[in-house]
Amino acid sequence: MFGKPVSEYLRFQAPVLFLLGLVGVLRLGVSLAGASDKTAAFLSMNVIGWLAVVYYGVAAHGRGYGYKQLLPLGFFQIVLQQAICVVGILLSIAGYPNVFAAPEFSFGVQNQWLHLASHLTVGIVVPTLLFWGVASLVLRITKGFSSRPVAA
Fold it and tell me: pLDDT tens for residues 30-40?
């Protein structure tokens, strides 16, 4: 994929994916255990995700990744995030309310099937492209700094 095997992308981002998965599962678990949505919200996959965008943009330059290789990194990360959200929404549909189906975290969508569908469509495409754009900007800035000559 874009000149690199999928395994290389996953190996590069394994620590981030692990942390992202851990935070997402903890968020779901805390919510299902009865913590308030406000409390569960402190376990934010989005914070981890945005930190990863910056990390990938900086680290990509030293690892031989270009702009096009940032797209699969974003895709894999967003798919993991959305998978955790989908599990939470499905649990809510099954009668186990949790933070992932709370109106304040779902743009007020009342129909959880529609909410689920949005995570599986728009929720994958738009964040992946946004991730790619921001990570590409960070990579461009990183390349600009690293190509400057060192003062003697």
Answer: 999 999 988 99
Q: What angle do CA 144, 148, 152 make, to 5 degrees?
A: 160
Q: What does the radius of gyration of the chain's CA atoms come to, in whole angstroms?
A: 18
Give the pLDDT confidence of 126-146 residue by residue, as tens digits: 999 999 999 999 999 988 887
- Number of domains within the chain: 1
Residue 90 within a domain:
yes
CA angle at 128 for the pair 5 and 96, rounded to the nearest 5°: 105
- Check residue 91 and give its pLDDT: 97
Q: Let me know: does 56 contact 48? Beta carbons within 8 Å.
A: no
From the centroid of its chain, how far is CA 140? 21
Kindly provide the residue ranges of all beta strands, DSSP E only, lying in the chain, ordered along the sequence.
Answer: none
Q: What are phi and psi of 96, to 5 degrees?
A: -115, 85
pLDDT 10s digits, 41-57: 889 999 999 999 999 99
Measured distance CA(16)–CA(19) in Å, rounded:
5
Which residues, 6+ apart, have CB-to-CB distance to 3 below 8 Å?
68, 69
Instruction: Identify whether 21 is part of a domain.
Output: yes
